[in-house]
Each structure stands twice: as C-alpha cells, then as structure tokens.
C-alpha cells in the first residue's frame, strides 16, 4: 500500500487586525497608545469598590456595541443583506459583554483585511472562526444570580445562556460575517487567544480553509473576579496610582492588573491574499504549544515548558533564535512569573540576547486574560510592520533577578529599530503555554 506524500504547509499571513482595548476602541488607536507609552489603567467604574481591596482595572471606556460601521459590509455578496454594525440594539441584549467586544474586534479585522470586496468569489465554507474566551460571561452570571435571588425564576432572561456560553462569540461572528468554515472556541485561560491564533493558522496551513478569523476576548471586571484574584494575592493594590500599578520586571511589582478587551486577526493563505491584492502585515511562521505539568498557577522552574513552547515555534518557523529581534513577553507583573519567563527567554535566546529587545505591554494594557495572547501578538506584528518596539512602562528599578539575565527589557520608551521577526508568548493557569513567531514576508 502506498502512503500519500505529505503536502507542504501553506504559508499564512495576517491581512486584518481588530482591537477594542483599554488603550483604544480600534487597532490603530491601541497601537498608537502602545508606542506612546500610555497606560489604559484607572479606577474601576463598572461596580462599587467601596469594600473591595482592589479598586483599579483596565476598562474599555466609551464602547458602544451598536455603533455604526464606517462603511457597510457585504459578507453575503452583492445584493445580499448588508452589515452596518456589529449588533443591532435588539441583538445586543442577547449577548454578554465579552461577545460585544469580541464581535466588534472581529468585524474590524474583517473590514481591515479588504476581503469583503471579494466575497462574491469566495465560498463561505472557505473562511472559519476560532475565537476564545478565558472566563466567559461572568458579569452576566453575577447579575442574573442577583436577579433570581431577588425576583425569582420568571425574571431570568431567556437569553442568559447566550450571554455566558463561551462559544457564542465565535458563533455570532460566524453568523454576522457569513463564515461557514470551522467554528470553534478555545478556553485555555491566559493562553486562550494564542492557542486560537495558532490552531486557526494550522487550519489554513493544512488547506482546510483559505482564511480564519482568530483571537480572543474577555470582560470580567466584576466583584467576584476582582475579589477572587485579590484573595489569591495576584493583583496589584496600587489603588492610588493606577497608571503605575502594572510594572513587569520592576523590583516593586506587586501583581497584575485585571483588564478587559478583545484582539482579533484575519489570517489568510499567502497566495490567496496576494491574488486579491491584500495588504500584508506579517507572516505567521511558527506556533508552539506545550504544558508544564508542574503547578496549576505557577510556571515551572526556569519556565521549562515555556522554553519548549518557544523552541517549538522557532522550529516550525524554520528560524534560529538569532533571527528574532523582538520578544513580546507574557510579563504579567507578578513577582515570580516575570522572573521565570525572563529566565526562559534568556536561555532560548542566549546567543543573541545582547541585540534582542523584550517588552511587556501589560504594563500599559493590564492583563486581558483570554485576549492577552492576541494583544501580545498585535505588539509583535506591528513592531515588524513599523520597525518600532513598544516599551515596558513603569520599569524604574529592575528586579536584580531580572537584571542578572542580561536582557534588554525596553524600559520606558519605544525603540525604533528594524524587526525582521518577533516572538509572542502567552501562558495560562493549568500550566498551558503558547508561542507565536511572526516575520516579514
């Protein structure tokens, strides 16, 4: 019996980006804030924090899920029903805030890619969705439970399940944009959107589809989430100085800052993108996914699993560590996590750490949980496109353990430099790791 030859992997590029974050309501505004070194962290307004030990977060402010799009989209082709906003006022009530944020970012990525103008010639089965969320509809769970306790079963919303189900973001994006390929939702804590992007790229590379909408969303700035993370002693308590609270690698760091938002990409097969004259931000060259099998909430010593994740991504990319100019680190601003990840980066990039830039954008965005990996990927992709590395904000006194690693942690200000290729990390509770490698085409 003859064994079929393995088909070569198809090349995957990014042709569209969407973002709704504490730094801006779209991708260009978010990127402009990152390279300017602006913080999106401030006092919590989404609930009364009077008795809460932590009173700061990275909120998405002034967001309207029913805001009109700059121009109508026609995902059903000419003559089909036009999409004029991510949600109508009626439909918005059916979904949770993470879906509102995620769909807005997905629609932006889709529109930014320019693929809409070519939908008449693209079978909807050739475009899919992989959009994840870490904790899902926690605000809606809390508010519905309070309603039930006060007013009984008859006051529970008939849309409650739609509001909290993790896959309803992917489902609504698919329905809204007429995407009939693979439709799935990954949930792997803070590695969620890194895995979603990597697995979506694999589907394109295999030839299952020609394009995928991929990324993640999160919105869990609630009493239970803030209270629970505070009880774990995971959150910064710099309540009087919120913009300086998230400080990766700094000796005075005291925990992460919880944030909300969504970041989404349109991934496309290279020749498919070239065939329609698409702009290309970067190529997604490699993806690594590993497990620590060590601890539920702490990295393995020297982030051994993270090292394997980075090395796997480099191997798939066909690149050496010396080919990477920038690492967009997970860098949550926790005392142990930053040191362990830093040690892993120093090990993997031992040969070129003198010329490597590393930065932690959570210093500005806070921790977007399920969207964190995509946020880090956005920094890597845009650094390649614009030849500028965003800074690690609030890095005023480097932790001696981090300083000893010999890494350039890009303190304070963005650095203009050519970026041929970049690696983005994201790690999650349960010991799950994802690394993505991007490069110029």
Number of domains: 2
Query: For the residues shown, what is the average pLDDT?
Result: 96
State the secondary-structure class. alpha/beta
Instruction: Determine the N-to-C terminus distance.
Output: 39 Å
The low-confidence parts are none
Task: Give an overview in words.
With 441 residues, the protein is an alpha/beta fold. It has helices at residues 27-36, 89-92, 97-113, 138-151, 160-164, 168-177, 192-206, 223-231, 270-275, 304-317, 335-348, 362-365, 372-386, 400-403, and strands at residues 12-20, 42-43, 56-57, 68-73, 83-85, 127-133, 183-184, 211-218, 261-269, 282-291, 326-328, 357-359, 388-389, 415-416, 421-428, 432-439. It folds into 2 domains: 12-275, 3-Layer(aba) Sandwich (Peroxisomal Thiolase, Chain A, domain 1); 287-439, Thiolase/Chalcone synthase (Peroxisomal Thiolase, Chain A, domain 1, 3-Layer(aba) Sandwich), CATH 3.40.47.10. Helix content is 32%, strand content 19%. The protein has a 10-stranded mixed sheet, with helices on both faces. A two-stranded antiparallel sheet has the order 2-3. Strands 4-5 form a two-stranded antiparallel ribbon. It is globular and about 60 Å long. The mean pLDDT is 96.
How do the strands and helices of this protein lay out in sequence?
Blueprint: E1 12-20, H1 27-36, E2 42-43, E3 56-57, E4 68-73, E5 83-85, H2 89-92, H3 97-113, E6 127-133, H4 138-151, H5 160-164, H6 168-177, E7 183-184, H7 192-206, E8 211-218, H8 223-231, E9 261-269, H9 270-275, E10 282-291, H10 304-317, E11 326-328, H11 335-348, E12 357-359, H12 362-365, H13 372-386, E13 388-389, H14 400-403, E14 415-416, E15 421-428, E16 432-439
Parallel strand pairs: 6-7, 6-8, 11-12, 11-15
Antiparallel strand pairs: 1-9, 1-10, 2-3, 4-5, 8-9, 10-16, 13-14, 15-16
Helix pairs in contact: 3-6, 7-13, 10-11
């Amino acid at each position: 019996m003859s064994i079929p030859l393995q088909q070569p992997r198809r090349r995957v590029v990014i042709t569209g980006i969407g973002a709704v974050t504490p730094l801006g309501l779209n991708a260009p505004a978010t990127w402009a804030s990152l390279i300017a070194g602006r913080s999106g962290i401030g006092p919590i307004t989404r609930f009364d924090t009077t008795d809460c030990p932590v009173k700061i977060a990275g909120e998405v402010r002034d967001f309207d899920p029913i805001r009109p799009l700059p121009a109508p989209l026609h995902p059903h082709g000419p003559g089909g029903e036009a999409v004029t906003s991510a949600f109508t006022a009626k439909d918005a009530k059916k979904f949770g805030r993470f879906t509102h944020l995620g769909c807005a970012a997905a629609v932006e990525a889709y529109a930014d890619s320019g693929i809409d103008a070519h939908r008449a010639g693209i079978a909807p089965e050739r475009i899919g969705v992989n959009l994840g969320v870490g904790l899902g509809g926690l605000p809606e769970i809390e508010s519905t439970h309070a309603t039930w306790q006060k007013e009984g079963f008859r006051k529970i919303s008939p849309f409650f399940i739609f509001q909290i189900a993790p896959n309803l973001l992917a489902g609504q994006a698919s329905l809204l944009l007429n995407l009939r390929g693979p439709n799935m939702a990954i949930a792997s804590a803070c590695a969620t959107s890194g895995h979603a992007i990597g697995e979506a790229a694999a589907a394109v590379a295999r030839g299952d589809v020609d394009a995928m909408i991929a990324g993640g969303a999160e919105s869990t700035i609630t009493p239970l989430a803030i209270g629970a993370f505070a009880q774990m002693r995971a959150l910064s308590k710099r309540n009087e100085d919120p913009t300086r609270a998230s400080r990766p690698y700094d000796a005075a760091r005291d925990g992460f800052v919880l944030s909300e938002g969504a970041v989404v990409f349109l991934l496309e097969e290279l020749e498919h993108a070239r065939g329609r004259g698409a702009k290309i931000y970067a190529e997604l060259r490699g993806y690594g996914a590993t497990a620590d099998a060590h601890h539920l909430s702490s990295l393995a010593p020297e982030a051994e699993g993270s090292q394997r994740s980075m090395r796997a991504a480099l191997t798939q990319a066909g690149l050496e560590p010396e080919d990477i100019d920038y690492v967009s680190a997970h860098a949550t601003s926790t005392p142990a996590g930053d040191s362990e990840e830093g040690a892993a980066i120093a090990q993997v990039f031992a040969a070129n750490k003198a010329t490597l830039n590393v930065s932690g954008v959570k210093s500005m965005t806070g921790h977007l949980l399920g969207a964190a990996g995509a946020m880090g990927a956005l920094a890597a992709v845009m650094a390649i496109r614009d030849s500028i590395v965003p800074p690690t904000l609030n890095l005023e006194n480097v932790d001696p353990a981090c300083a000893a690693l010999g890494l350039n942690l890009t303190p304070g200000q963005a650095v203009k430099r050519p970026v041929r290729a970049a690696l983005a990390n994201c790690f999650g509770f349960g010991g799950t790791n994802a690394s993505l490698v991007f490069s110029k085409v």
